[in-house]
Amino acid sequence: MHSFGTFTILSLAAAATISAAPTATTAEEASNTVTLTGVTHSVIAGLGHSLFDPDNVVADIGDVVEWHFLPQNHSIAQSNFAEPCQPLSDGTSFFSGFNFVTQQNQAPDVFQIVVKDKNPIWYYCPGQIHCQEGMVGVINQQFDNPDFSLSKYKELAAETRISIVPPVQQGGDVIANPNPLGGF
């Protein structure tokens, strides 16, 4: 004969076992939420007129990449390796827009994205012929394959005839410059 306390413990143990069973997750239910690491990588857009510095960023998932804009009119747009100087064909490219015109010092705003995976993120400045002049960059280049290097991407960009401006600003955040007197 079991006491009421033993029955209660057995019932709770059985319930815990049943509720701990795994459940299937479909793609529609999967979260694309990324936990922020608190690390921000600053990239200067427009150093030496048409360069990103650094142009090769190694970032972890959850890191923020933040572009600071120097004089002239620069922008950031995502592309793929095989087609530099044009946005992704599926329409998902991040694009900062041309919101950062400044005649001196840094622009009052910056553009940020959050790194969501370790895949390479190729980007360019779609202004004038900046991309063709080498104003391109990468986040998380795969260093083990020289055929997909930043230097090869710059070579491919130099061979393109035009830079394509994406149709909409999307995929990141324009925020007030947290360090406008940074002295870049």
TrEMBL record:
Keywords attached to this entry: Signal
Per the UniProt entry, the signal peptide is: 1-20
Q: Does the keyword Magnesium apply?
A: no
- Name the InterPro entries for this protein: Cupredoxin (IPR008972), Ser-rich/MCO-related (IPR052953)
Name of protein? Extracellular serine-rich protein
Organism from which the protein derives: Tolypocladium capitatum
